[in-house]
Specification:
The protein is α+β, with helices and mostly antiparallel strands. The chain has three domains: about 150 residues, DNA methylase specificity domains (Adenine-n6-DNA-methyltransferase TaqI, Chain A, domain 2, Alpha-Beta Complex); about 90 residues, Bipartite methylase S protein (Helix Hairpins, Orthogonal Bundle); about 140 residues, DNA methylase specificity domains (Adenine-n6-DNA-methyltransferase TaqI, Chain A, domain 2, Alpha-Beta Complex). About 35% of the residues lie in helices and about 20% in strands. The strands form seven sheets. It has a five-stranded mixed β-sheet with strand order 4-11-8-9-6. The chain has a four-stranded antiparallel β-sheet with strand order 14-21-18-19. Strand 1 and strand 2 form a beta hairpin.
Length: about 400
């Protein structure tokens, strides 16, 4: 908690050279607040230029807005309220109230955004970090209504604690270093994902081939119907679901589509229906309807009835992780196959006749190891990003009042 003694308010974590207490200030006392506006959309000459026009959709996990979905010409730009570099953007209307960012270069914004430009006694960077920390609290002030709204007057009168400009700058500089680290990690992850995407394209188009341990080429890839390689078994309808329990005695994990789409829903457990529908980490399964064609691998449990197991007919010729990667690459093809039916779903008969080209088991294995190593690197960077975000969150909670 914050330290409050004898009317002095200071944060829990502080640079040692600062001793003065923090003072309470309204947002309009520390900054000029500007509500955005939208140039007339009927004027084509205002749009598709080089100037940034920020909407809430342009504010994401990045601190600075460097690109926007909509751009303006110089003529359109002059119709808005120009925001200077470094100004803080805060969404005050709509379902995304609380999204916060900073201006990377001169821009204008739409009317859902209030922009704060610090006065000479305060720091834009400090205000950004402060509002990022307080965003959820501010969002609750908008209340529950059809279109959540925090008007400029109420927003301007929000009161927070501020230190001297020198301390603001010291805090902001320290947090900016953390943000820079986040940006570097995010860029590294993006580059790895882009590289993986490109190399998968080359591998599965056979532009890039692997060699055996003696440096010789493997046999040519062969075209085969999926039904010649695999058989399918549909998941189970579970009528009785267990509660969200921490213990697993008498229960098994119930795997649904949400597990594949990486939602934050808790893991469900069900009463064990027997071994028929169990899958292990090395088993393949796919979504039959509702996001049809999405493939799963590396799970343990019982699959739901809108999923189906993909079972190799000859295990010595099938490397499941390779086909997991291949099916992911071919996802669009499965989607189109499903959408061709009246009720979009993968038809087993059609799926069995679908042709694909695959290499020998040995080359499958080498490809899977190579691509899995890239996945491991991406996962490592993702973990570093999450850890750095958690570190920053802890700093924000302790360095602000």
């Amino acid at each position: 908690m914050d330290v409050i003694t004898k009317n002095k308010v200071v944060p829990k974590l502080r640079f040692g050279e600062f001793q003065d207490d923090w003072g309470s200030r309204l947002l309009n006392e520390v900054s000029i607040i500007t509500t955005g506006s939208t140039p007339s959309t009927s004027k084509k000459e205002y749009y598709d230029g080089q100037r940034l026009f920020v909407s809430p959709a342009d504010i994401n996990d990045n601190r600075f807005v460097v690109t926007t979905k909509t751009t303006l010409t110089e003529l359109g730009f002059k119709k808005g309220r120009i925001l200077e570099k470094g100004s803080v953007l805060f969404v005050c209307i709509g379902s995304t109230i609380g999204k916060t960012a900073q201006v990377f270069e001169e821009c204008i914004s739409n009317q859902q955004i209030n922009a704060l430009t610090a006065n000479s006694n305060n720091s834009n960077d400090f205000i950004f970090s402060l509002l990022s920390l307080k965003a959820k609290k501010i969002k609750r002030l908008a209340g529950v209504q059809a279109v959540p709204l925090l008007n400029k007057t109420d927003f301007s009168k929000l009161k927070f604690y501020f230190p001297s400009l020198t301390e603001q700058q010291k805090i902001a500089s320290f947090l900016s270093a953390v943000d820079k680290k986040l940006q570097q990690l995010t860029k590294k992850k993006d580059l790895l994902e882009e590289y993986k995407k490109g190399v998968m394209q080359k591998i599965f188009s056979q532009e890039l081939r692997f060699k055996d341990d003696n440096g010789n080429n493997y046999l040519n890839w062969e075209e085969t119907r999926i039904g010649e390689l695999f058989e399918f078994k549909q998941g189970v309808q579970c009528a009785i679901e267990g509660q969200f329990l921490n213990k697993k005695e008498g229960l098994v994990r119930f795997i649904r589509i949400v597990d594949l789409t990486k939602t934050d829903e808790p893991i469900r457990y069900i009463e064990d229906p027997g071994t028929t529908h169990h899958i292990s980490n090395d088993d393949l399964f796919m979504v039959r309807y509702g996001n049809a064609g999405l493939v799963g691998y590396g799970y343990q449990g019982v699959i739901a009835n809108n999923l189906f197991r993909i079972i190799p007919k000859e295990r010595t010729k099938i490397h499941n992780n390779f086909f997991h990667l291949l099916f992911r690459f071919k996802h669009r093809q499965f989607e189109l196959l499903a959408s061709s039916s009246t009720m979009p779903a993968l038809n087993f008969t059609s799926l069995k006749t679908l042709k694909l080209t695959s290499p020998s088991f040995e080359e499958q294995q080498k490809i899977a190891i190579f691509l899995s190593s890239l996945d491991s690197k991406i996962k490592l960077v993702s973990t570093q990003i999450q850890n750095t975000k958690a570190f920053k969150k802890g700093l924000l909670q302790q360095m602000f009042v």
